[in-house]
Amino acid sequence: MSANSRLTIAAHALAWIGLYQRQGHEVATSEQIAASANTNPVVIRRLLGELRGAGLVESRRGVGAGWSLARELGSMTLRDVYEAVEPGPLFAMHRATPDQECAVGFGIQPAMREIYAGVEETLRQELSRVTLEDVLRDVLAVRPGPTGEVPSGG
Amino acid sequence: MSANSRLTIAAHALAWIGLYQRQGHEVATSEQIAASANTNPVVIRRLLGELRGAGLVESRRGVGAGWSLARELGSMTLRDVYEAVEPGPLFAMHRATPDQECAVGFGIQPAMREIYAGVEETLRQELSRVTLEDVLRDVLAVRPGPTGEVPSGG
DNA sequence: GATAGTCGCAACGCTAATTGTTACGACAGC
DNA sequence: GCTGTCGTAACAATTAGCGTTGCGACTATC
Q1: In A7-65, at which residue ranges do the beta strands (DSSP E only) sit?
Q2: Alpha-carbon distance A52 to A84, whole Å?
Q3: N or C: which end of chain B has fewer CB within 10 A?
Q4: Is the CB of B64 under 7 A from strand C?
Q5: Looking at residue B152, what is its pLDDT?
Q6: Roughly how many angstroms between the first and final C-alpha of chain A, as a whole number?
Q7: Which pLDDT tens digit goes with each residue over A54-93?
Q8: Averaged over B104-129, what is the pLDDT?
């Protein structure tokens, strides 16, 4: 499907900011998050910009600037994140219009569109069952450590 | 997500073959199907080759060759087709390994892998609720016509 | 007011997947 | 043997995703 990593990186960033804030820090920089995700700060800023548009994070500019959560992690779900960073459909139609003189060519797109709409709604419902709080909990459970563990180890 | 049309085209091909066979024809050629889907016969042969590997269709070679269903449309679901033409995962992990010294970087991939596995299983279950018989019925319902209507109008 | 650190954003290159296309060998019915 | 179709390789074109650089905008601090 040529899957991309946008949902993964966005969830990573949110979990990182959330954990960092629990350690008493006000804002996290794109550079810190990028170091944790092993990517470029601009990639993080692009994704967080979309999350900001969805009301999930806020940003400050100037010296001491950075990113902070706009809501509690427990009130955000992967559905919110998915809809913020994946605007397009899951399945595409034909690149070129099928033969409208053919019964199958004529009806296939409306039929598949309706089927796909139901499937995508189910996907969204499933994503909405997982909060970012769940994600952070699962992440920290992989390598058990002290409560309030430092994201980057320092 | 950079969605592709593989599932759509594969469903189109199966519906076309199924309808064509109901009109008394034994096999359908990739050229006929390609004309209906408005694409190249090689594209159809590639997809049908994957469906053949999954046991959904059969092919004959030589003069008068072509494609036929290996099972009834009612016994195939979109899940079968999806698994035949979409081997990869729905969501990708980080392109580069995240910082393993960071608690989030260390735990994010196992955590997301498990979450994604559940989501993808839900997607498959939803796709398994739709048979290709359902698809063909929906397709023909878009433009009501006589039972046994000719796919390409001739 | 100057400085420094960070975001905002445009621009570009690289890589990979998808799709379309051509070409040609393999096969089977006539 | 001829012909029509599949089987498959090879290549081009297009697009999305991702990484990178560069620079202007903004603001806390000095």
Answers
A1: 57-60
A2: 9
A3: C
A4: yes
A5: 54
A6: 38
A7: 999 999 998 889 999 999 999 999 999 999 999 999 999 9
A8: 98
| Residue pair A5/B94 in contact by the 8 Å Cβ criterion | yes
**Does 3.30.365.10 match the CATH number of domain A6-88+131-142?**
no
- Of A108, A122, A143, nearest to B15 by CB-CB distance is A108
pLDDT on residue A149: 56
Q: Closest Cα of chain B to A61: distance in Å?
A: 25
pLDDT at residue B41 tops 80: yes
pLDDT in tens, A2-42: 899 999 999 999 999 999 999 999 999 999 999 999 999 99
Q: Rounded to an integer, what distance in angstroms lies between the CA atom of residue B79 and that of residue B32?
A: 25
Nearest chain B alpha carbon to A36: B99
Q: What is the pTM assigned to this prediction?
A: 0.93
Q: Do B115 and A9 touch (CB under 8 A)?
A: no
Number of neighbouring beta carbons within 10 Å of residue A62? 5
CA of A31 to C1' of C2 (A): 25
Q: Which nucleotide is nearest to A31 (CA to C1')?
A: C6
Answer positive or negative: Cα dihedral of B13, B14, B20, B25: positive
Inspect the interface and report whether the beta carbons of A4 and B3 lie closer than 8 Å. no
Q: What number is the average pLDDT over the span A112-139?
A: 98
Are residues B108 and A150, on separate chains, in Cβ contact within 8 Å?
A: no
**What integer is the mean pLDDT of B13-33?**
97
Q: From CA A63, how far away is CA A92, in angstroms rounded?
A: 44
**Coil vs helix vs strand at A77:** strand
